[in-house]
Amino acid sequence: MTTNRASARFEAVRTAGSRAPRVFKKTFSSPHDLDLKASEYFGCNTFSFDMMEKKLSSSDISILREFATSDKPLTLDIANKVADAVRDWALARGATHYCHWFQPQTGATAEKHDAFFSFDKRGNAIEKFTGKELIQSEPDASSFPSGGVRATFEARGYTAWDASSPMFLMESENGLTLCIPSLFISYNGEALDEKTPLLRSLSALNKAATESLKLMGHDVKYVIASAGPEQEYFVCDESLFNLRPDLLLAGRTLLGRNPPRGQQLEDHYFGSIKPRILAFMMEAEHELYKLSVPCKTRHNEVAPSQCEIAPIFENANIAADHNQLVLEVLRTVARRHQLQVLFHEKPYAGINGSGKHVNWSLADNHGHNMLEPGDNPMDNIRFLWFLAGTIKAVNEYATLLRMSIASAGNDFRLGANEAPPAIISCFLGDTLTEVVQKLTTAGGGSLSDRAKNINLDLARVPLISRDNTDRNRTSPFAFTGNKFEFRAVGASASISPSLTYLNAAVAKALHEMNDQLKKANPRPNQDDILKLIVDTLNEHKKVCFEGNGYSTEWHKEAEKRGLPNIRTTPDALAAIKETKNKTMLASLGVHRGEEVEARYNVKLERYIKVRMIELETLQEMLSNEVFPAAVAHTRILAQSAASLKTAMGGIPSELEKQLRIASDLTAKMATAKDKLGTFLEQCAATHDEPKLAAKIASEGMPLMEEVRKVSDELELVVDDQLWSLPKYREILYMM
Ligand code: ADP
Ligand code: MG
User: Fold this and answer.
1) CB-based contacts of 445: which residues, under 8 Å, 6+ apart?
2) Ligand 1 pocket check: which of 224, 309, 315, 359 to mutate, most ligand atoms within 8 Å of Cβ?
3) Measured in angstroms, how far is the CA atom of residue 284 from the centroid of ligand 2?
4) What is the pTM assigned to this prediction?
5) 3-state DSSP assignment of residue 50
6) Which residue is closest in CA terms to ligand 1's atom 14?
7) Theoretical Cys-Cys bridge with 208: which of 455, 510, 512, 657, CB 3.0 to 4.6 Å?
8) What is the pLDDT of residues 413-427, one digit of tens each?
């Protein structure tokens, strides 16, 4: 007997297995040569500064450029000119609507479209777009998370143009929309989004780092943070995806027995990419190039059907916008290929999850990378200064960094045995570790070959070899030659919060170092600078760790060193309210007024909602799919036993055994279902949010695990003809 659901599963497997790669024609939404190279159409859908230069006078451009890198307000006059130029460009490209494109605290983007279409004073139909409309818009903000900043009676918030990130045209089947990257702020000017604090943190970092450089005698105008996020994701066939309520609603599987073959053969990482997936990747990259997203790397990741896309790094604010576009474009293009992408941090138990390695560094207006060991002693002092500043920042604000990556999904990675641990530490690599060692221990001693370029005795300034190829996959925050890689960020998260708090922590550390330096000597020399670097490293090097971050020894060692190990999101979120963190964020202007409280509330609420969706979806799946399959299976076995007993006078022992296993598991499933139901009732009766979050983390999570175990055991014994949920082997391998 085959149930309808199970036959739907077989049908989906057949469909998934027989699809051909989708062939796509490159489209440019304006007549272009179809054989253009990427470099020839890169950015054709963005209104870049270069394009603006063609339309505006040079003095207007310089004001605009300044606006993009400073806090100065923009005059309406210039806004009108930009609006005219961008309207002409967008209309010529066939755009019909424009929208302020912003990032409320949902991890995703939001947009409300308005038509260019309007009436002039005499009632004639026209296309209109003004400076005022460019600068500001007022979406109904009442349905976005605000964490209490915006009292409910004051539902208004407004979006404001971020002139430092280029506007772009989003294509869809039937037209184009002009998207204006924007901030989202309450009427009192409090940030309701992810972009505003990021921009504030960049400005704080710019101030601190520029002062550092000036104190060290460098002639600089500004310093920017750059970011290159490596994005991991899974793909699966949509017909199988659609039959899994958990993937559909929770973005991850809540049940599912591991197939005998997972990632143990280690044949997927960098393996040849399946034609259907490659076809999808190529189309997505094509769309992303049009939007100026500089896609560089694509490859298979460790787990079956897991992939990665990485761009060339950019200014952190633009990189954050572009990462949002990557998520969006991958999602929409995948559907054209009858695929679904999963950005969840842990879509499948038992195989690797997905993260986002956010590569980060600082550069001055001359393009020098502050985290690049240089060719001469002065450059190396600069490098060591910023290295020390970053280490100090990570040590002092570890809980804030931990908070920045906390989410319901990322809880499955952090602290589990496959991804960065929940203990925030810095990996430096052998060479740098030796440099730090030599600098911070008196006497020095002879150096190894690897660090032989270091000459501490002569100028007392180490020359550091640039060749640093060390890798440590177990560190949450690793130095990789000329940048740090924040490896603990979740795959589905916006990169803005992690960048925001990292920038802020480093800004604060640099400010303190600047002050100490000025106090020691208002006109500091090399010796003063080096002494401060050494003192700073000495004070903070305890956050550096080179070993295996997964090992239990590290957990013990970290505890000895006093490094926090925060395992769950509810615990991690509290860090933003710690006085030290709160004071630092306020002093730099990264968060104002009620923002800190509000962010805590938003994140905690989100944690609860995500988990409640999971728990309720699980309950449905057990009731509608797993339990009925278990009962049907047991009934068939029982019927066979009964008829054999009648026919042969006894039940074969093997059948008897199977029947007992099936009925035991069915009974266990009934109990599990009840337990889950009771737990959900308790949750509904718990109104205190921190208590509810803690309850879910400490009781709900183990309960989900327990229930899942029974279901996964059932999956092994129940007749395949009765099992309606697509199995791991099918979702992971049928493409
Ligand atoms: P891997 O997988 O070896 O870590 P990838 O080449 O996949 O490296 O990704 C490295 C990322 O780091 C890319 O996005 C790259 O552009 C970025 N990156 C390189 N240099 C810098 C830098 N100075 N600042 C920020 N990001 C950088
Ligand atoms: Mg990397």
Assistant:
1) 438
2) 359
3) 21
4) 0.93
5) helix
6) 228
7) 510
8) 986 666 677 899 999
